[in-house]
Design goal:
The chain has 178 residues and is of the alpha+beta class. It has two domains: 73 residues, tRNA intron endonuclease, N-terminal domain (MutS, DNA mismatch repair protein, domain I), CATH 3.40.1170; 90 residues, Trna Endonuclease, Chain: A, domain 1. The strands form two sheets. A six-stranded mixed sheet has the order 3-4-2-1-5-6. A five-stranded mixed sheet has the order 7-8-9-10-11. The longest helix is centred in the middle third of the chain and has 13 residues. The chain starts with 7 loop residues before the first strand and ends in a 5-residue tail after the last strand.
Length: 178
Amino acid sequence: MEEEEIVACGKLIDTSVIIEGKDVAKLYNQGYYGELVSDEKLILNPVEALILLERNKIKVIDNGGNEYSFNDLMKYLEKVDKEIWIKYIVYRDLRSRGYIVRQGPGEVAEYRLYERGAKVGKDVAKYLVGIVEEGKPFSLTELDKITKAARSMGKELILAIVDRQGDITYYKVSRLEL
């Protein structure tokens, strides 16, 4: 099988990857990856950089010119975010199902999820995706908090439950008031 052509080279700055050049708009338009700052500058968050690196769409270098493999970048990011692997596998799974996935509103949910065929900037995200890892405590108070927040934003909440083998089960969560 032939490898896909590398589209762009990004520079690792802290935990973001900055891509500059003429291929930026092309890369962005292929799947709405990153935050398009200008026609020639794109900022990728960690999971976006990981998936594009895995798919050979980008290569990543640091200030010293050292190139990162997928595993190198994952190890680097794990030092900053212990949950990066779980976030990545959920992100990759949602992307492989054809969804546009953007970063979520911080503590409420990890991702915003657009319906298939949506256009970022024209359509709004319909769902918020929260991640729960099997074996880690998750209280009903926490669930109530993120459900209320999603509802106040006019979004539906989906919980991605990741088991110990990395398999993901999605549950739609709604609030029931008696």
